[in-house]
């Protein structure tokens, strides 16, 4: 139990230092954002408002979005109660192999 306590304390200290560094350098409060990406995007938008971000055309955007189904998550939990040999598939590799032929 002591290990977990020290782990949580260390994580808190690291996040606190990171929060102070980001706020002192960019004046962005990372606690307002759920992800590191969203806080990075806020920094980008705050300091790069003069840059125009090009938009994709509707045709290109729809082609990029075709493979995405949205809100789909697969989770596989292997249960090896009988201590038998278990075979699995690398579904990420299968996706790449299928898309290679298209």
Quote the distance from N terminus to C terminus: 52 Å
DSSP summary, beta strand count: 0
Helix content: 40-55%
DSSP strand content: under 5%
The Rg value, from CA coordinates, equals 22 Å
Structural class: mainly alpha
**What's the pLDDT, averaged over the residues?**
81
Apparent shape? flat
Strand/helix succession? HHHH
Uncertain spans, ≥5 residues at pLDDT below 50? none
Count up the helices. Answer: 4
How many strands, what sense, and barrel or not for the largest sheet?
none
Structure description:
The chain is mainly alpha-helical. It has a domain of 32 residues. The protein starts with a helix and ends with a helix.
Descriptive tags:
single chain; 102 residues; mainly alpha; 54% helix; flat
Topology of helices and strands:
Elements lengths: L1 H25 L9 H12 L10 H8 L25 H10 L2
Structure summary:
The protein has 102 residues and is an all-alpha fold.
